[in-house]
Amino acid sequence: MGAKRLTSADRIYMVLNYSVLFIFCATALYPFIYFLALSFNDGYDAMKGGIYFFPRVFTLENYAKAFTNPLILNSFYVSIARTVIVTVGSVLLTALLAYALSRKGLPGRKYIVFFFFFTTLFSGGLIPTFILFRQIHILNTFWVLVLPSLYSFFNAIIMKTFFDGIPEALSESARIDGASELSVFARIILPLSMPVLATIALFVGVGVWNDWFTGQFFIQNEKLHPAATFLNKMISEASFQSMTSSSGNSGSAIQNMTESQLELRGVTPEALRMTFVIIITTPIICVYPFLQKYFVKGVLVGSLKE
Amino acid sequence: MGSSKLRKIWYFRHIYLFLLPAIIWYLIFAYYPMYGILIAFKDFKYNLGILGSPWAGFKYFEQFLNDSSFYDVLRNTLSISALKLIFGFPAPLILALMLNAVMHGRLKRVFQTISYLPHFVSWVVVVTLLQKILSPNVGLINDIRYQMGLEPIFFMGKPELFYPLVVISDIWKGVGWGSIIYLAALTNIDPHLYEAAEIDGAGRWSKLFKITLPSLTPTIAILLIFSLSGILNAGFDQIWLMQTPATLSVSEILDTYVLKTGLQQGQLAYSTAIGLFKSAISLGLIVLVNYISRKVSEVSLW
Q1: Distance CA A193, CA A80 (A)
Q2: Could you tell me if residue A129 is left (phi over 0), alpha (psi between -120 and 50 degrees) or otherwise beta?
């Protein structure tokens, strides 16, 4: 871009533009700073209010509590197991599907693609899905957290679009040399597809890590509740407390139950909630910026295909 | 079918094998529940199964069509979707345009990265945030009000505030992520167009309306198709978590109503009937909107 005289109108727009962007980004970041401060602050002191950016009475008690409490730890184990299994499984299975769909000349391809595409337009709904889970005996088991999350048509299309961009010549020459489809897939396509595999892994991983619904409505066994479901239980109790009392420390039955369940000792439920949020969110915040260039590019490729 | 067709299938046999797990999965998890829709037409009992349960015809459809709470729920759903469409749909586009105007590459990347932070965070966390900020006893805003000597307000229990809170939090959460696709489309616009316009003396608004927006039309159209056809989904996760007993008159949407009547009250057939109603209308909508889009702008999903 050549040198241009900036008019005063240009300058005003620039200032406005940067200000709004800055303010928006501040609102996106601030809540986490707030929660971070609260998580490192003594819970009873926090109840007095006035904590905005930094802890006033620093303590590691909340984190100690979170990392040693069996209920909390358990929910994290469930979430981690679920996320790892589903991410690896889904990425591999979806890649297999996407590769198959990308093979030109496959007889019946149009119908096959429609078979998968149609499911994005219409679905059975909640109750039929529930009945299905019941009939195949995955309700109230770990598998209800895994099996239904294995495939997503949108992810398959993103991968397929990427595979379409890999030069045909590479796989063709391998095939001519006698390589099997599986060989071509594993040795040629996959290694070249790391960006899209990483992107889909991120999407799947985040989706499954953040899913609170499945655990909440399809599993009664609290030992199998993932972290997001556990957090939901923690905050429903919180909102019940806010509604039934005007002070933060009422004698309501639910609060007492939480306190005895969690064996609190100088750690308030509220502080624990904040800590839990930080623990549950930090892995994602640490991972996604590194994959940013991949998923941004992925959308670019996808949008070109449109 | 000639033998060359059969030979082709044999040639691709491994590919069909690759497709097999996916086909099985979809048959089980996507297509079988569609068969389960029959429950809406039956007096379903678990022990009798879907086929064994007696027919009930359209009884449950009549039930919800005559149920006044159903219409309230439908009204709420459409209101929320409409508000999200009016205020929420343009937001990512505006953000993309603003990000695009940032000259420093590094700063732009930083703004971008931060802007999608809310997208990656669960609604449970976002609602925790909302509660934390708006709570009458431990919330941030009421804390400030208290310091100023004002009375606390229980924001999330006020029906009149529910829609604004829903729309604003939805925009906050989705605008960064939504802007990605617009930013990608913006990079595809030929810079020479802008240069030529400069030479012809076009100002910034002219460039915006005559070059930028028209170039973005395909992207906008596709996203609009998705948004319009999803009008009966008002955002289950968010709404369910944000509902309070006090706001139910405005916060009960189709999906939350289906869940409550089905999984909580056990009215399986009634719930399925409403679910079917919603799915069928959504399917009709997407076909209709796609058709209109194709006629009007030549952009469509298929």
Answers
A1: 25
A2: alpha
Q: Is there a domain that residue B177 lies in?
A: yes
DSSP H stretches of helix in chain B: 3-11, 13-26, 32-36, 49-52, 59-65, 68-83, 90-100, 105-115, 123-134, 140-147, 159-187, 191-199, 204-207, 213-229, 236-242, 248-251, 254-259, 268-297
Mutation test of the interface with chain B: which of A20, A91, A106, A127, choosing the one with the most B Cβ atoms within 10 A? A127
Q: Does the predicted interface ipTM exceed a cut of 0.85? A: yes
Do B116 and B45 fall into the same domain?
no
What sign does the dihedral B263-B268-B274-B278 (CA atoms) show?
positive
Does B97 contact chain A (CB < 8 Å)? no
The residues facing A58 across adjacent strands are A41
As beta bridge partners, residue B42 has: B55
- Any CB–CB contact under 8 A between A105 and chain B? yes
What does the alpha-carbon distance between residue B142 and residue B154 come to, in Å, rounded to a whole number?
A: 9
3-state SS, residue A192: helix
3-state secondary structure of B2: coil
Q: Judge: A280–B122 Cβ closer than 8 Å, yes or no.
A: yes
Q: What is the distance between the alpha carbons of residues A168 and A170, in angstroms, rounded to a whole number?
A: 5
The tens digit of pLDDT for each residue in A13-50 reads 899 999 999 999 999 999 999 999 999 998 888 887 77
- Domain-located, residue B134: yes
CATH code (residue A274): 1.10.3720.10
Segment A53-79 mean pLDDT: 91
Look up residue B62 and give its amino acid: E
Rounded Cα distance between A124 and A138, Å, is 18
Q: Does B196 touch chain A (CB under 8 A)?
A: no
**B 250-279 near A (Cβ less than 8 A):** 255, 258-259, 262-263, 268, 271-272, 275-276, 278-279
Helix (H, G, I), strand (E, B) or coil at A37: helix
